[in-house]
Amino acid sequence: MSKKIVCLFDVDGTLTEPRQPINASVEKFLLETIKKEFDIAVVGGSDLIKIQEQLGGGQLFEKYKYVFAENGLITFKDGKALPSQSIQDMLGEDALQDFINFVLRYISELQLPFKRGTFVEFRTGMINVSPVGRNCSKKEREQFYEYDNEHHIREKFIQALKKEFPDLALTYSIGGQISFDVFPVGWDKTYCLRHLQGYDEIHFFGDKTAEGGNDHEIYESDLTIGHRVTCPKDTVNQLNILMALLKENREKEQLNVPLQCV
Ligand SMILES: [Mg+2]
């Protein structure tokens, strides 16, 4: 009996260059070669709209059996939405508002070289906080990133939040150039695994697998077989290796089956 396997992919840096649409040859390989052997699924930290932009618009749900946006807080299986939880259900409105008020107050007292708009972006399972504001241009993003490397604005902000809210079970994750994410403990990418039932093996492919990276927990999870990749091309290479290994194992198994009289 062949094993039931699902290949689960991170998006940015794994299937696509960061924030870019998937390369046509990578997509063709996934849909025409990999999908014949395994179920395929994607898990991204960003919202569904961004994943749709990167991975094929309206046909997204036909291409991937599972689509996990926001680490799996938003889940589609065969195109159908599964029930989700929200950060407001988890924290409660009072705690949530105290938190947001503190964030806004802290930002109001920050002196930076410049500030733009959208300092708090509220998502289903996380809050994204940007001291400089998400509405900055590409050039301004880079400028802030450099400034932050020197002055540790985001790190200090997180320390202040941890000190102010020691009892809220929250995780803080610095990603990208201008912001950090805040979400309940455990609502990292491992969250999506609760929806992947009935598989013998879950192969996860991701690029940010080191500690502090947003693929770390799911890469290390006992429920997955983790593959660390460096770019989409490397993902394709590693999938080819996986396919070759499984083929070899299958052939060995067939040789080991005792001969039977028919
Ligand atoms: Mg990534």
Structural account:
This protein is an alpha/beta fold and 262 residues long. It is elongated. Strands 5-4-3-2-1-10-11 form a seven-stranded mixed sheet. Helices cover 39% and strands 19% of the residues. The chain has two domains: 5-73 and 188-256, Rossmann fold (3-Layer(aba) Sandwich); 87-184, Hypothetical Protein, Haloacid Dehalogenase-like Hydrolase, Chain: A, domain 2 (2-Layer Sandwich). Strand 6 and strand 7 form a beta hairpin. It is built from nine helices and eleven strands. The longest helix is centred in the C-terminal third of the chain and has 25 residues, at 232-256. The mean pLDDT is 93. The chain has helices at 24-37, 48-54, 60-63, 87-91, 93-108, 138-151, 153-164, 216-220, 232-256; strands spanning 5-10, 39-43, 66-69, 74-77, 80-82, 120-122, 127-129, 170-175, 179-184, 201-206, 225-228. The protein binds magnesium ion. Magnesium ion is lined by residues 10, 12-14, 206-208.
